[in-house]
Amino acid sequence: MTALASPGPETPRPETTAPRDAGTVPRGRRGRRGRPRLASTIVHRAIVALLILYLTVPFGWLVVYSIYPSSNLRSTRMDFSLGDITLGEYASLLSDSSFVVPIRNSLFVATATTIICMILGSLCAYVFARFRFRGQQTLLLSMMAVQAIPAVVLAVPLFVLLRAFGLYDSLLGMILTYTAFILPLVIWMMVSFFESIPVNLEKAARVDGCTRLGIVRRVVLPLSGPGFAATSIFAFITAWSDFFLAKVLTSNTTPLLSVRTASFQGLFAMDYTAAATAGVITALPVLVLALLAQKWIVQGITEGAVKG
């Protein structure tokens, strides 16, 4: 019978190295690690600051030119005295019918184009997002391929076509023209937003007795609100700020604001204050609209980019 071996003296356990706390990192090493990050942050913020200046300084200079007399800014030493600031040119332009009528025309054309594009574009985009049929991708890509054709190439055919149908120099002709250009982009953008909505929500609505159009109106459109807002603003800005087609397809009967603003630039002389004031008035609706809906624009573009 073997005797049980008595436990010997305990062998010393090797010392375990505890994980080094972040606070125990030597200061010199932390400093060396933090320097590249600090330098990257400084460079990043400097680039952002330069970009903001690059984008805002031209518009700021336009505002300055619109509120100061031209003589103050065109002299050798510019005079920025606060006492010389005046809004007289704004009052003069907004009381001039030759400038108010183009504002009204552009507002009507841009609003009507946006409404038509969003109604037709949303319905078409819903079909592309929810139904599968032969030639679907080909049709979608062909609509975008049309956008690759420069407007200058289509200007003459559009001029001949509108003139043949009696729509040259008319608001209806401009609405139809802008709708043809903007509608494919609206469809393309809205398809991405509709695809991001879960199909189960629509199935639940159908179980409750909702029709297909009812689903679009009560479920799909409310859930795609940010994308709908972003696309609407995009359509409005495109129709509002176009100059080339408005210059070719309109004349004196239905002038648009972009053409009227460009007319301040004369061949031999130019009224800088009036031109700058007209530029600010032209850009102001788009600026206000973008600021008011910036949350929806960012959210809509982000959702569309992730899904698309």
Automatic annotation (TrEMBL):
Gene3D superfamilies named in the record: MetI-like (1.10.3720.10)
Keywords per UniProt: Cell membrane, Membrane, Sugar transport, Transmembrane, Transmembrane helix, Transport
Membrane topology summary: Multi-pass membrane protein
Xref: InterPro entries: BP-dep_ABC_trans_perm, MetI-like, MetI-like_sf
Signal peptide: none
Domain ABC transmembrane type-1: 103-293
Region (Disordered): 1-33
Localization in the cell: Cell membrane
Keyword field contains Cell membrane: yes
Domain of life assignment: Bacteria
Sequence intervals crossing the membrane: 42-68, 107-128, 140-165, 171-194, 215-240, 272-293
Main location per the UniProt record: membrane
Pfam family, one: BPD_transp_1
The keyword Coiled coil belongs to this UniProt entry's keyword annotation: no
Family of this protein: Belongs to the binding-protein-dependent transport system permease family.
Protein name: Multiple sugar transport system permease protein
